[in-house]
Every structure is written in C-alpha cells, then in structure tokens.
Write a structure and sequence with these properties.
Strand content of chain B: 5-15%
Structural class of chain B: alpha/beta
Order of helices and strands of chain A: HHHHHHEEHHHHHHH
Radius of gyration of chain A: 24 Å
Structural class of chain A: mainly alpha
Largest interface: A-B, 72 and 66 residues
Radius of gyration of chain B: 23 Å
CATH class of the largest domain in chain B: Alpha Beta
Number of strands of chain B: 13
Largest sheet of chain A: 2 strands, antiparallel
Low-confidence stretches of chain B: 1-42
Number of helices of chain B: 21
Number of strands of chain A: 2
CATH superfamily of the largest domain in chain B: Periplasmic binding protein-like II
Shape of chain B: globular
Mean pLDDT of chain B: 86
Strand content of chain A: under 5%
CATH architecture of chain A: Orthogonal Bundle
Helix content of chain A: 55-70%
Oligomer: heterodimer
Strand order of the largest sheet of chain A: 1-2
CATH architecture of the largest domain in chain B: 3-Layer(aba) Sandwich
Number of domains of chain A: 1
Mean pLDDT of chain A: 87
Shape of chain A: globular
CATH topology of the largest domain in chain B: D-Maltodextrin-Binding Protein, domain 2
Largest sheet of chain B: 7 strands, mixed
C-alpha cells in the first residue's frame, strides 16, 4: 500500500519537476556557466575566462551606481509599501467605530478593498504605460495638465517626473517618481494579505484591549503589528525581490532606459545593455549570477533575523 | 533551448515569485543569458547561373523578418511579389515585428531567420554581429547581376550605401531606405507669414522671435531617444569642423572632440536651449512630430520617413518640406554637406538555413520595380538610383532637391555603430545638452572622456574608417 502511494505521488510530481529542472534550473546552470566565459551572445564561440567577469564587476562604475539605486529601492519599496498596506488594512478591518465591543473597519471598507487591490490585476507594463500618460511632461499629461490649468505650474517649466535627474534627498528625482508607482501598484496586494492575517486575530484580544482603555494607536502597535510579524516578514522578502528587479518600470518609463544620463540605472538595465547592446553576454551573466547570490543571501539573512517563537492563538 | 527576456515573461516571473513558487527574482535575468548549441547547415544545392547567381533551390523556403516601424511593411509585401514573379517555386515566409532584437537575437546562434531587417529601437548591435561572425558578408550580392537593370547590384546603389554597410572592410548590411535628414517646416505656413527657412543658426535666431510672437515654439525635438537630437548635433559639428574632424572622432583619435569647430557647433545648440526656443514638455518622437503638425512648433528635425510615419494625422493644408541643417556661417568648413545616407539595414545571419534564397530576396528588394514601389508606398527614397523619379509628393520632392544641390560629400557618422558604449554615452549627453543641464564644454569633455575610455579598453575591438 505504502509503495503504491509513493508511485502515485511520483507519477504526479515527475513531470512538473522535470519541466522545472529543464526550464528553470537548467538555464540557471547555463547562465552560471556562461558567466565564466567571454561569450558574445550571437555565435557559439566562447572562451573560458575564469572569474575575470566577476573581478570586473567590482571596478565597474556603472554597476556600482546601479547597485546603489537598487539598494535605494530595496529600502524604500518594502518600507513604504508595507507601511501603507498596514495602515490601509488596519483601517479596513479594525479602524472603524468601537461600539458595543464590535470591532469593524471604516464605513465602505468592502469597496475600498476592491479599489486598492485593483492595480494588482494590471500587468506592470500596462501600469507603466498608464503612468507615462499621468507623468507626461507637457500640457497633455494628467498631473501637469491639471496643475497648468490651475496655474500652479508654469507651462514653460513643467514638472519633469521621470526626466528629472536632479537629486532629492540625495537620490535622483526620477527614482522617487518610480518608487511612487511601485508603492501604488504593490500596496493593494499586501493590504489584502495583511487583512487576511488581521482577520485571523481573535476579536476577543481586541475587545480586551479596548476594555482596558487602549486607543487605536495602542491596539495597532501593541497587538496588531506583533501578531502580524510573520506576514510582514514574508511581505518584506517578496517586496525586496521586486525592489531588486524594477526592470519593467525603468525600461518603459525612463529615457534611454536608465536615464536621463544613467540617473535611473539599475542592475537589470545595466545587464540588459551589457548583454544586448554591448554584446558581452558572459559579463552580463556574471551580473545576473551576482545578483542572484546577493538576493539569496539577503533572503536568508532576513529570515534568520526575523525568526522568533510563534504565538499560537 | 533558449529563453527570451521579454516583458511578459518578466511579469510572469514576478507573479510567480509573489505567489511563492519561485523565490529568486533574478530568475528572469539569469535565464536571459541562457543560450545553446548550434546546428544546421546551408542547403544551397542548385547550380549557379547568371539568372540564378546564388543557386537558389526550387522548393526551398526563405524566412524574412521585416521591421514594422515608420516605413510600415507593405513595401516588403511588394518585394515578395517581385521575388515570386521570378522564383514561383520558392516559399517566402514574410513576417513583421517591432521587436527585432527580442525575437531574433535568441535564434542567432542556432536557427535564425534567413533575412532580418535590423532596424528600430530594439536593434541588434551591428558591431557585435560582425565581431561574432553572426552575419554573412554580402560581397557576392554586390557582384551579382542586378534584378531588372543593366550591370551589377553594386552599380544600382546610391552613393554611400556600400560604405554604410561596410564593416572591417567587408560589406555586411544592405540598407534599403535612403534617408535625408534635416529641419522640417510647414511651407504653407511659412509662405503665409512670409518667413524664409533659415540656412544658418544666425538666421534662425533672427527668425525665432517672429515665430514666438505667433505663439509658437521655434523648435521641438525628441527628448526620449537621445539619438534624435544627436543627428542634429553631429550634422552641425560636421558642417562647422569639417569631414576630417568627424572621421577623427569615429577613429577615436586623441583629442578629436577638441578639434577646432566642434565646440562652436555645440555652443550654437547651447544658445538655442538657453534662449528657450524649444517647446517644453520632454516629448518622444511621435509626440514631438505631432506637436509640430499641430502648429505648436515651427521646426522639427528628423529623417525622410517622417511623412510616412505621421501619414494618418497630417492636417489638411499642411505642406511638409525639408530644409538642410543649419550651419554656423562664414567660418564653416563644410556648410553645404547634406546629412543623407542609406538607412534601415537588412542582414543575413551566418547560420541562416537558406542563405542563397536570402541573397536572392535581397536582390529582388534592390530591384528597380521593388525600389519604385518602396518610394511610392513610403514617400521615402530607396537606396537604389531613381526610385523616387515618378513619385509626386512635396516632402519627397524637397528631399530630392536638397540632394541634387548637395556637394560630393555626405555627412556620415560611424562611431555609434562602432561602439555601443559611445552610442549610449553620446545619446545621454545629447539629451542632457538639449535639456539644458550640460554646457557645450561639458559635452565635449564628456564625449572625449568616453572616447578615451573606449580607446584604452582592450576588451573592445577597434574599428576605423578612412572616408
């Protein structure tokens, strides 16, 4: 009997695992292999160069710049997305009136949930194209157009959005504008995630807190947030991955894909340029592998730091 | 197998990662690099003759991929008909796309298409293709008899077409369109207002206040793609500093960007920006061209594909005409040289399964019949002689006139085809100069620095031009 079960399970797993190995794991291995060569991408000629590509990474100014831009997103995307998502989730679930020991969300929370979740059902490219029109830097742009009509923006000097490399708090403005889109498009999903987690927190915990005279502020920071720890931690890791990517937004929205003048260059855009325009696939693969290693280390470190005893309820 | 790093796949991966199925975001980046083993050989077999110079085999098929951009793809369908008339037993699989590199690059090392039009924004780097031996030298195509006229194919081409397609001494790229670049204006408007299209920057600066008085911006440009303003900047540099200066720039000669005449050319542009003669708004190519058509700006600079690209939105009564790029004036070394040359390159991959039919197809593309159709349909000249002779069109006629008054030398810049790094840097700096964030001096210093860096980088294969 046990033997039969094993065979049954194997039968289901064999094909997906084989597909996964062939289409996912094998390309990874290939890329790691290519990263040790000087392959150009358009032929089958390649020479083994050892770790040269990796050594080169450390002296590449453009990569260094891109790395810091990714680090900017790595810090800000999870921070702002989670903060916003938590805030919204709290309002929608427990932020409403505290009457008759009833804990509920603000009025109309069901509708808000749908609205906030909406960006998640759009492809990121669609989101980028849409925001291109919102950010458009002449009178036909949604924001500029309205502000010009109201007289807040001089038509001769519109807001440049993704064309603006001037630093704001030491980071090119274009990155902040991209961050806004990333947070806008991500917050809805995590709001739903946090909502689900909040709903599994027993109501009597809140009731007890309210009886003890805790306000919204205290219930949130003393009860909700600690009990959501696991969920927030997972969200942080996912968002970290998104922050290390950001490719679609940069690719669609910034001038010369990483511009103006390298102001929005990220790992993926440098990789794309190196592989497909410079024709240095070997070096580009080394960038990809380096990023993968960095990502895995980051995720591992984070899981380790946030690991704690689970509270059962 | 190979994997294409397109956006859909990326989004898919992102979703997958979010669902927790796959926890490494670099997956897309990693698999982007995956390629594989080559295969396949040429299947030329039929005997070569004067009428069948490449030995195309009956019953074989040829896969043709056309860039469906400003010129559309209807002209290619006409070429297919020309080809089929002579080679009815060869199957032509014609397709068109805007994503040339995304779709064709992954196939280059294994099973490429036979004919690939390498054009548009998503383009395969031509120097890499040559250096990697990924595309076929086409000297035999030049030597082959012309499709429907006397002499060899080479004899039918307009000046500069062969030079433009030549890399490291060999002819690799067939450019089908013949583009003339310059400043476009609405002749009807200029006539009504009594304005003369300027020939020099000084004349332009004198005209600009009158244009502004009509509530129009004097000039609009593409702020998204740095290579648009770069044409104009390089044309001014050539006119001011002369041909040799640009050849030196292309050859990475020491201090080539600091030669006499380069800085003043860029300073003219710096003044244009500083004097606020540009339409604000950071528009892209079609947006800026539309703004020009809508009468928001007096001049837009671009090549002769403009008319076809904007065909659907040209307002009635609008008379598109092309005028030469402005020169600086008296001290110029080559004030009358016109920026013109073959464009829209087509290549034959080395691993194409049916190279004989690929070359035969290109011979048909360069035929008299095919070229005439090309000019008629696209309102652009083909790279063969006499293609536009029978087309009635103000835009095409003004381009033709400009060409017939042009001296021997045509403006030709190669460094961005030679070196991807300089391509990127020059696009970035051109955009910065036009945005007013860079002075002419900083532009020169920046380009010199980038050129020196390429010159001293041993991993980059060097190329040179002599003419």
């Amino acid at each position: 009997m046990r033997h039969g079960v094993a065979r049954f399970v194997m039968g289901f797993l064999a094909l997906p695992v084989a597909l996964y190995l062939f289409y996912v794991v094998w390309p990874f291995a290939q890329a790691a292999g290519y990263s040790l060569t000087d392959w150009g991408g358009y032929s089958d000629r390649q020479q083994f160069v050892g770790l040269d590509n990796y050594v080169r990474l450390f002296s590449d100014e453009l990569i260094r710049k891109a790395f810091w831009h990714n680090v900017f997103f790595l810090i800000t995307v999870p921070l702002f997305t989670i903060a916003l998502a938590l805030f919204l989730a709290f309002l929608l679930n427990v932020g409403g009136r505290e009457d008759r020991a009833g804990i509920r969300g603000v009025f109309g929370s069901g509708l808000y949930k749908v609205i906030f979740f909406f960006p998640q059902v759009l492809s990121l490219v669609v989101v980028a194209v849409m925001w291109q029109q919102i950010y458009r830097a002449d009178g036909q742009g949604l924001i500029n157009g309205v502000l010009m009509k109201v007289g807040l923006v001089d038509p001769e000097d519109p807001i440049l959005f993704t064309f603006d490399p001037e630093p704001f708090l030491g980071v090119p403005a274009v990155l902040w504008w991209l961050l806004l889109i990333a947070v806008w498009s991500g917050a809805g999903f995590y709001m739903v995630l946090f909502s689900a987690a909040m709903q599994s927190i027993p109501k009597d915990v809140y009731e007890a807190a309210i009886l003890d005279g805790a306000g919204r502020f205290h219930t949130f920071f003393r009860i909700t947030l600690p009990l959501l720890r696991d969920t927030v931690s997972v969200a942080w890791i996912y968002l970290g991955f998104i922050a290390l990517d950001m490719y679609a937004l940069v690719f669609v929205m910034t001038p010369s894909q990483g511009g103006p003048n390298h102001a929005s260059e990220i790992f993926a855009s440098v990789l794309n340029f190196t592989a497909f325009q410079k024709g240095q696939f070997g070096y580009a693969c080394a960038m990809g592998v380096a990023l993968a290693i960095f990502t895995i280390l980051l995720a591992a470190a984070q899981l380790k730091i946030t690991r704690r005893e689970r509270i059962e309820y | 197998m190979s994997v294409t790093p397109d956006l859909n796949r990326r989004t898919l991966l992102r979703r997958a990662a979010a669902a927790g199925l796959l926890t490494v975001p670099a997956a897309g980046l990693l698999s982007a690099c995956a390629g594989s083993e080559p295969a396949q050989d040429d299947n030329s077999g039929a005997a070569k003759s004067k009428d069948n110079p490449f030995g195309v085999q009956d019953g074989s098929s040829v896969k043709v991929v056309i860039f469906n951009g400003g010129l559309g793809d209807q002209w290619a369908k006409e070429d297919e008909a020309v080809f089929k008339a002579k080679r009815p037993n060869v199957t032509v699989n014609l397709s068109s796309t805007q994503k040339i590199k995304t779709e064709e690059q992954p196939k280059m090392a294994t099973q490429p298409s036979d004919v690939v039009m390498n054009s548009g924004a998503d383009i395969m780097d031509i120097s890499t293709l040559v250096n990697e031996g990924a595309i076929e030298p086409l000297e035999d195509l030049l030597a082959a008899p012309a499709w429907d006229s006397e002499g060899a194919v080479a004899d039918t081409l307009l000046p500069g077409t062969i030079e433009k397609g030549t890399f490291q001494g060999k002819f690799y790229v067939v450019h089908v369109a013949y583009t003339v670049w310059g400043n476009w204006y609405n002749a009807a408007l200029f006539e009504k207002e009594g304005w003369q299209p300027p020939k020099t920057f000084d004349e332009f600066f004198a005209l600009a206040p009158k244009i502004k008085a009509k509530g129009m911006a004097p000039y609009v440009y593409d702020a998204v793609h740095g290579y648009y303003p770069r044409w104009a900047l390089m044309a001014t540099i050539w006119k001011s500093a002369g041909k040799q200066a640009v050849i030196d720039i292309d050859n990475l000669k020491e201090n080539a960007w600091k030669a006499d005449g380069v800085l003043p050319a860029l300073e003219a542009w710096e003044k244009l920006v500083k004097d606020k003669l540009l339409l604000p708004g950071q528009l892209d190519h079609t947006q800026s061209q539309q703004a020009w058509l809508d009468g928001k700006a007096a001049f837009v600079q671009v090549g002769t594909w403009l008319k076809n690209e904007m065909a659907e939105t040209i307002p009635p009564g609008f008379e598109m005409k092309l005028s030469d790029y402005w020169s600086l004036g008296a001290g110029d070394k080559a004030p009358n040289d016109v920026y013109a040359g073959a464009g829209e390159g087509i290549v034959v991959p080395s691993r194409a399964p049916n190279k004989a039919a690929a070359k035969e197809f290109l011979r048909a593309v360069l035929s008299k019949e095919g070229s005439a159709k090309f000019a008629e349909l696209t309102k652009s000249l083909a790279s063969t002689k006499g293609s536009g002779d029978n087309v009635q069109d103000s835009a095409l006629t003004s381009a033709n006139e400009l060409m017939s008054n042009a001296p021997e030398d045509l403006i030709l810049v190669k460094f961005w085809d030679f070196y991807a790094d300089l391509d990127k840097e020059s696009q970035n700096l051109s955009a910065e100069l036009m945005a007013g964030r860079l002075t002419a001096q900083q532009f020169v210093d920046g380009m010199q620095g980038a050129a020196d860096k390429v010159a001293s980088d041993s991993s980059i294969k060097k190329q040179t031009r002599s003419a």
